[in-house]
Design a protein that fits this description.
Blueprint lengths: L1 H24 L5 H14 L5 H5 L3 H18 L3 H6 L1 H8 L1 H18 L3 H10 L5 H11 L3 H32 L6 H28 L5 H22 L4 H13 L7 H25 L2 H5 L2 H23 L7 H8 L6 H17 L4 H30 L8 E5 L3 H12 L4 E5 L2 H9 L4 E3 L5 H6 L5 E6 L6 H13 L4 E3 L6 H5 L3 H5 L10 H9 L3 E7 L5 H8 L4 E7 L2 E4 L11 E7 L1 H14 L1 H14 L7 H8 L1
Parallel strand pairs: 1-2, 1-4, 2-3, 4-5
Antiparallel strand pairs: 6-9, 7-8, 7-9
Helix pairs in contact: 1-2, 1-14, 2-14, 4-10, 4-12, 4-13, 4-14, 4-18, 6-7, 6-10, 7-8, 7-16, 8-10, 9-10, 9-19, 10-11, 10-13, 10-18, 11-12, 11-13, 12-13, 12-14, 14-18, 16-17, 16-19, 17-19, 18-19, 26-30, 28-29
Length: 635
């Protein structure tokens, strides 16, 4: 028996990784291959029977897994960020949640003959969408940036809100089902323990992090251990209060000032990916296929209510007073796939409610899986066609993600932004990110290859990556990650490789992409030129002022960077790029190039000199404090 359990745990790990990889490779939500895998192993082939294999351990495994999932989701619920991401997002996660909840609960009560308590619980379980299903769909569909941003942040924020709502309804049902206690007294005691204990422990953990009372290598493990201890302790004090406690604890941590929880979020997300994947296979394997089929036409009508009534009503009500157009709203109406959080929480609640003998508890899981299967399959297959029909696609992705927010990258980003080109700077150096924010440049602070980045880094409108950073160990990882995401020919890096031994350790495909701005251009060279007063400017290359004229004016030291032709952004990679007329060239001009241009202008006359000075002033990227330090670090 021990060997069988060990083998199944190993199989779950391998299958979880395989399903996540298939979802990533096919640009589909990982929930689809996970669902198919669980159904195949469980009801299909009867290979995996979680109840028989794990026995009494199954409930603790699911319970602890759900606790980690809810805590990780709550860590992302920063109330300030809700306000920062627009009125539509705020409306959807507040008014929209209530409308969706009321519609689904009412339909469940009348169609499935549920008691109102169970109908309200089911409605709370399926209001959540979640980034794990939304983000892969957005990458495939590529709607315009405003719509992608709304959907992405709705999924991030509504996860913990919906889970908290479901926990509250569940606790009311659990208390009401116990005839030995007074409902209001017990519910008040449970809420007091959950909210009070969660808030206190969240604050204390925040103090521990802020005061650096744990060494860095113990911080992530310490927070996880404390969270699990709090979950168990809360349940010992008051049964069923643990989920509320860890959710409140995460929300308090997310909204405390002066603490950095980005490392914790990244660690929890990595853990959550494994937990979610394994849990979902287990939960799908437990699904009774007969119970799913026995839902009949009522279940299908309920699915139709969720997709065609609740969501459109929520979107149109929340869209009142916003700048969204009619087609934008119709697109948002069709993008609300349910995720793994609903499946995990519903399965846990179903087990507990069945033990309490609550009527209808055995139907909760099949209904939730029906909504998940229906929304994910139908919407992932049709949303792209719907977006093209409505004309809400972003078109060709001309934007740039630049890894490395050095002085050079910031100045290049400012010039590109002035040309209405989408630019985002990513860096794990806070000083660089802070300076970029002061210039109003969109940024991502952290490792752009992390799971956190896959959910929070806005890639809308971005089609290429420029690696302009001094992090020689991280650069190849970032390049390989985004070659898979964007395409091999959409990733460019600087030629920072020194020595033949270093080159032999890297693949030829990677080395072939180290041609950004030319094979001889390195990070140290760019940083040095900027620190010495080089500027970035744009120049129109026309029939009357060709690229040869440009070189004649500025000399061979002028460095082409990017050129815009017919609305398309092109990256300069060397002399092989023919810079013909009809382009707008963005280039880096060292001091000697600027002096040469001024000397030539003086020879041509004072009028030409004035025009040149005015042209350079309009596009100038002046050196800022810290540039010289960057140059020294690079050298």
């Amino acid at each position: 028996m021990v060997e069988q359990i060990t083998a199944m745990l190993g199989l779950l790990g391998v299958l979880s990784l395989l399903c996540q990889w298939i979802g990533w490779k096919l640009r589909l939500p990982a929930i689809l291959p996970l669902l198919l895998c669980g159904l195949l192993l469980g009801p299909g082939l009867n290979i995996l029977n979680p109840d028989a294999i794990f026995g009494d351990l199954l409930f603790p495994i699911i319970s602890l897994g759900v606790a980690v999932i809810l805590f990780e989701g709550a860590l992302t619920l920063n109330f300030k960020e809700i306000q920062d991401h627009g009125r539509m997002v705020t409306n959807l996660v507040t008014l929209g949640t209530l409308i969706t909840w009321a519609c689904i609960a009412s339909a469940t009560h009348f169609l499935m003959d549920f008691q109102w308590e169970m109908a309200l619980l089911f409605g709370a379980l399926v209001v959540v969408t979640g980034p794990t299903v939304i983000v892969p769909m957005l990458r495939s569909i590529k709607p315009k940036s405003e719509l992608a941003r709304i959907l992405r942040w709705e999924g991030i924020v509504i996860d913990p809100i919906g889970a908290l709502l479901a926990v509250l309804v569940f606790e009311y049902i659990a208390v009401a089902a116990d005839p030995t206690v007074h409902v209001l007294h017990a519910l008040g005691y449970m809420l007091g323990i959950g909210i009070g204990f969660g808030a206190i422990t969240g604050y204390l953990v925040g103090v521990i992090i802020k005061q650096n009372l744990l060494p860095h290598y113990l911080k992530n493990a310490g927070v996880l251990t404390i969270m699990l201890g709090v979950f168990v302790g809360s349940n010992l004090i008051q049964e069923e209060s643990g989920l509320l406690t860890v959710t409140v604890m995460g929300i308090v941590l997310a909204n405390m000032r002066g603490i950095d929880i980005s490392d914790i979020i990244e660690f929890k997300e990595t853990l959550t990916v494994l937990l979610i994947s394994a849990l979902f296979i287990l939960l799908a394997a437990r699904l009774d296929s007969d119970a799913l089929l026995n839902l009949g036409w009522q279940g299908l009508v309920l699915l139709a209510v969720v997709m065609f009534i609740a969501r459109p009503l929520s979107v149109w009500a929340c869209g009142i007073g916003t700048s969204l157009k009619r087609n934008d709203k119709w697109f948002l109406c069709w993008m609300a796939p349910r995720g793994i959080v609903a499946a995990a929480v519903s399965s846990l609640f179903a087990i507990k409610l069945e033990s309490l003998g609550v009527p209808g508890a055995n139907l909760i899981v099949p209904l939730v899986f029906l909504i998940i299967i229906g929304t994910v399959v139908v919407q992932s297959l049709t949303a792209g066609v719907w977006a093209r029909y409505l004309g809400v696609g972003s078109g060709s992705s001309q934007g740039l993600l630049i890894f490395g927010a050095s002085a050079f990258s910031r100045e290049l980003a400012k010039v590109l932004k002035s040309k209405n080109i989408t630019v985002t700077l990513a860096d794990n150096n806070w000083d660089n990110i802070r300076l970029a924010r002061m210039d109003n440049i969109p940024v991502y602070f952290g490792n752009p290859t992390s799971e956190h980045a896959s959910n929070f880094l806005d890639m809308t409108g971005i089609g290429r990556l420029l690696v302009i950073s001094p992090y020689r160990q991280l650069n190849p990882l970032v390049s390989f990650h985004y070659q898979d995401l964007l395409g091999t020919n959409k990733v460019y890096g600087l030629n920072n490789i020194e020595g033949t031994s270093a080159r032999h350790q890297l693949s030829e495909s990677y080395l072939a992409r180290l041609c950004l701005f030319g094979e001889s251009v390195t990070y140290a060279k760019l940083a040095s030129l900027i620190s010495k007063g080089a500027l970035i400017k744009s120049t129109n290359i026309t029939d009357s002022f060709s690229f040869d004229d440009f070189i004649a004016r500025y000399g061979e030291s002028a460095m082409p960077l990017v050129y815009i032709q017919a609305g398309k952004v092109n990256i300069y990679t060397g002399p092989a790029d023919k810079l013909a007329s009809g382009i707008e060239l963005i280039s880096l001009l060292p001091i000697e190039a600027q002096l040469l241009a001024k000397e030539r202008a003086l020879l041509l006359g004072s009028k030409a000199a004035d025009q040149l000075a005015q042209d350079e002033l309009s596009h100038e990227a002046k050196a800022k404090p810290g540039m010289e330090n960057e140059s020294r670090q690079a050298d």
